[in-house]
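Supplementary Methods S3. Input chains for the assembly prediction are listed below.
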Amino acid sequence: MTMLLEAEAPTTTAPDWELVYQRPQTLVDAPTHYCPGCSHGAIHRMVAETIDELGIRGCTICVAPVGCAVFAYKYFALDSCEAAHGRAPAMATGLKRVLPDRIIFTYQGDGDLASIGGNEILHAALRGEQISVIFVNNAVYGMTGGQMAPTTLTGMRTTSSPYGRDPLTQGRPIHITEMLATIPGVAYAVRRSMHSVAEMRKVKKALRLAFQAQMRGLGLSIVEILGACPTNWHLTPTESLDFIRDRMLPEYPLGDFKVDERLRD
Amino acid sequence: METSIIISGFGGQGALFAGQLLAYAAMDSGKEVTWIPSYGPEMRGGTAHCTVVIGDEQIGAPLVRNPDCVIAMNLPSVDKYESLIKAGGRLVYDSTLIKRALRRDDIAATSVPAHDIALRCGSQQLVNIAMLGALIALCPLVELSAIEQALRTHLPQRHAELLRPNILALHAGAAYAEERKVASSQG
Amino acid sequence: MARELWKGNEALAEAAIRAGVEAFFGYPITPQTELLEYMARRMPELGRAFLQAESEIAAINMVYGAACAGARAMTSSSSPGISLMQEGLSYIAGSETPCVVVDIMRGGPGLGNIQPGQADYFQLTRSAGHGDFHPLVLAPATVQEAVDLTYISFDLAFQYRTIVIIAGDGALGQMMEPVEMPPMREISQERPDWALTGVDDRPPRTITSLYLDADELERTNLRLQEKLQRVAANEQRWESYMTDDAEFLVVAFGTVARIARSAVRTARAAGIRVGLFRPISLWPYPAAALDQIVSRVQGVLVAEMNAGQMLEDVRMIVRGRVPIRFLGRMGGVIPMPDEIAAEISHIARVNHRSNGSNGKSPLSERSTVL
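Predicted structure tokens for the full assembly:
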């Protein structure tokens, strides 16, 4: 599309059409490895658009997780590194402490952030680390094939909870974003969802505020995004969106759990 | 030739600091020296000790099983180290706190009323320095003036008002030991 | 420059500061805590990054992050903490980011105790994490040497894009010795051409240890091994003491080596021609130097504060040419000079007895665990 534009450039008359959609500069022109109906691809795109719109591509560094988004660094046209499972907030801390004027974000799934990396995200929040955390919650471990995560719904069958998650022995779903919102070091903590176009627009706005919180030095920002995993949920892509709406939303209500007053300007 | 000194007492009696002063004085006198403390839970209220080794070339072991000299500021220290001192070695102990008779007759033992000396100099906190003064008088590891200089340089700022009493205690301890030396050589 | 009396842990910290460390991340653990405390005071004074992490796991990953930015980053810990760092060390090795780690070893396994130990030898030299790699491991015996090695550790880490581990023990960390500090170096603002700094106008850079394609990962491993071979060829460090005319040889590192030095002097005074070989780099092990000395002696004593870990390296180098005797103390017990001297006398006596007999040496290996 960019090529077309350049070819048009020498003509004297302005084109009579308007460019309304193109690949963001922050997104690499490459096919992703994500399954059909997976939310990661669309979330990547919205992250990339946000970075473009804020004009911070040149100074932004991505910390990729272990999980389905492990190759996030292949899709963002950014300086990136690959963290150990759950340790992205610690790695981001190290980067930010020596590069305080750069924008550092982690992109993490629910197994990564809420299970093995629980301590790292908790203490990054406690310190008010100036990083942005994009937390995609699809209620399962995706990459390893759909095992139970701390975010798995009560009664939900997974490959490691074949009889359904039993709260008596396996506990109930964890609400990370609500927990983090209680910590003074957190500037922005919200939950959004990918189940409809209207909700996706709200995801985009939240991403913008999350980066802005960091740019203004207000503290840690986290956007939890309820995403679909049709493959491991054994549903079609459209059924998966219904699953988010009907099953996940009652457990994980959308909303703003914390918004620093200064972000409301 | 290496000389090893263990300084031992209750936590808070300043055994480690006295050892550091000795180490500073040795270093400033151009000698090689190591200082190593007991550390960890022992430090919290139990018996604290440190080992100082002074020599003319690079010190080998910073810890010794059989020290040449021991300063014992409490009874547990005498109980622990009396039997370990090298034959012909030296024990200096505080007669105010240690009342029991010694068992060794192959070491030179000197009792010093360090507690009384310290009180006379202004504070019972000075026991460690009075004992160090006594040891230096008996066993010329370094010049007394080098210890005095180390005190001037290394006494923490928050104890600045204790500098004079410390120097007083150092010399009082040395003077007492000096007298005993003369007395024993005449007796 | 005048000599000052420094505690090992604090001297290590100051040496790192003078070498230009830009970021320190650590977690309290005896017997290295003074290093962390010293950094907590000094780094903010200099406008550099200091952070007490929530765990050793977080600390090493913070080091990883800062190192990705091309900064001189370090952490310090003691044995149980190093175990927790092994995951991060493996990622750092796999992604070839440089960093410096201090291990002030204590008695183990498990919680063990806080007294000096050398039982992390295998962990540091052989298995600092999963996968095929070795950190460069340097084992100082004196506080001055700890300072000198720390001072060059960042240069080595960046030259080879490798992990450099300074392996001390509780005695080295806690003791005070006179030290001559090296001069303060300026921190270079220049970043290596692999560092993450934000793309600006250049192509994106990625730091990762993930290679799903087997051939690609093998190529990466081969490159890593080639680099480690260069380290092995160039970075062997050792000290030999009274070995020129030695008939017997003590091999020891770190604190045990300095104690062995006293024992060697005692044995020499008793007429035994004994020397000391002290590896300073534990990986790469100074094999060629030891090999040469071993070819001239009649017996070797290995002394360690573990159950016989470096002993395996010595065995491989000695290759059965002369008998090896082993003295190992564990649990934080430090071998005393008289103990080592007694072992030296023993090998000298046994060797003397066996001379002129059937040529079969009665000297055999044994593990002394008292």
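The first strand of chain B starts at residue 2 and ends at 10. Chain B has one domain: 2-186.
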